[in-house]
């Protein structure tokens, strides 16, 4: 991409083509959330009150995990103000929706709505951005991890998706709690402690075996589902000097019925362009973007995006490329040479032997 544009630049050109109702809240989405909530309560109570075959417990755990993830997707909508506009009500509903993922609404708004959306793929300001060669060079732990064979790193990276959201949420709490005014910190602490207290209370009531099926396995499944989207949202995109959603975000495609179950969470470029528009209307936004800037827009099937995550390293080199420091092999990012086979970037493949050697030497210095 030759020139980055701000999300406001794109929004100003797409907005006139959207219906006015697209900018209004859609409270009917709460009925889907209510269904997930009731199923979750029923599943937890069934495990808690009845002694059944472990395979039945496991099936219920799968349903609970799917419900926990979907509630998180709806909570994301609610806390962006696209379901109800009343701040007190949206915070309450958001707290309920994010309860299984143990993330408080005030923390989420600070971490996601403010920091991530304002500074998407900014290597210094985006709390969700992956690290650069410079950061790699400063961390003994990361350098130690990158000494492992690539396939081992890739396997454990994908496996870690089952815990990443919860772990990152805890990290964000301790990173941002000091940024809240002293008078608001008790509420943020309460929103952090209450979900964990309730789940630990459930453990004390039903015992560790049933708790494994009522909470641990479901939350691992929920993490994996949520992170399958979140990990593909930006990790294949370049780091950027301008918050350009067509450059720094990826929309993945999934079957229509999955979009229905997951509240259109797959439309991520559209979300970064219009976070205040309910995802119900993102297909309209997508159609207009593809009409106006087809060469800038990034989309691919979910399974292909996950495969590319497996095949590429997660260390940024020169902002628009990814590098495996162990092998000093450089890969492109989306819009900068990345292709379905995750081959070395176009920049590297077209380099002369001398410039390629210099590039690899520069990479090796990071080890």
From TrEMBL:
The region called Disordered is annotated at 342-367
User: Mind telling me which PANTHER family this protein's record contains?
Assistant: DELTA(5) FATTY ACID DESATURASE C-RELATED, FATTY ACID DESATURASE 2
Q: Which residues cross the membrane?
A: 30-50, 56-76, 144-167, 188-206, 212-230
What keywords sit in the KW lines? Membrane, Transmembrane, Transmembrane helix
What is any Pfam family matched here?
A: FA_desaturase
The identity of this protein, by name, is Fatty acid desaturase family protein
Where in this chain does the record put each Fatty acid desaturase domain?
A: 55-300
Where does the signal peptide begin and end?
Answer: none
């Amino acid at each position: 991409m030759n020139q980055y544009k701000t999300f406001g630049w794109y929004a100003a050109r797409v907005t006139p083509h959207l219906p006015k109702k697209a900018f209004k809240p859609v409270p009917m989405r709460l009925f889907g959330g209510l269904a997930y909530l009731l199923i979750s309560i029923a599943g937890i109570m069934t495990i808690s009150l009845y002694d059944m075959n472990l395979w039945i417990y496991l099936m219920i755990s799968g349903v609970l995990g799917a419900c926990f993830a979907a509630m998180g997707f709806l909570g994301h909508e609610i806390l962006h103000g696209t379901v109800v506009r009343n701040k007190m009500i949206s915070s309450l509903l958001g707290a309920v929706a994010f309860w299984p993922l143990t993330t408080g609404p005030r923390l989420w708004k600070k971490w996601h709505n403010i920091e991530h959306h304002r500074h998407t793929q900014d290597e210094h300001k985006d709390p969700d951005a992956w690290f650069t060669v410079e950061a790699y060079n400063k961390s003994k732990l990361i350098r130690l991890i990158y000494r492992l064979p690539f396939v081992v790193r890739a396997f454990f990276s994908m496996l870690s998706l089952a815990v990443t959201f919860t772990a990152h949420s805890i990290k964000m709490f301790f990173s941002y709690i000091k940024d809240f005014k002293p008078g608001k910190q008790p509420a943020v602490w309460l929103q952090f402690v209450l979900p964990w207290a309730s789940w630990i209370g459930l453990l004390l009531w039903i015992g560790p075996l049933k708790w494994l099926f009522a909470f641990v396995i479901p939350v691992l499944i929920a993490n994996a589902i949520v992170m399958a989207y979140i990990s593909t949202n930006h990790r294949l995109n370049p780091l950027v000097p301008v918050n350009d959603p067509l450059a720094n975000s990826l929309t993945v495609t999934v079957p229509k019925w999955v979009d229905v179950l997951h509240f259109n969470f797959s439309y991520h470029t559209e979300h970064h362009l219009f976070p205040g528009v309910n995802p119900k209307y993102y297909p309209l936004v997508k159609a207009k973007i593809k009409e106006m800037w087809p060469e800038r827009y990034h989309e691919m099937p979910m399974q292909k995006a996950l495969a590319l995550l497996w095949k590429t390293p997660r260390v940024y080199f020169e902002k628009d490329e990814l590098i495996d420091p162990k092998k000093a092999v450089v890969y492109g990012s989306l819009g900068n040479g990345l292709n379905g086979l995750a081959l070395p970037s176009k920049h590297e493949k077209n380099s002369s032997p001398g410039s390629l050697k210099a590039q690899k030497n520069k990479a090796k210095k990071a080890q």
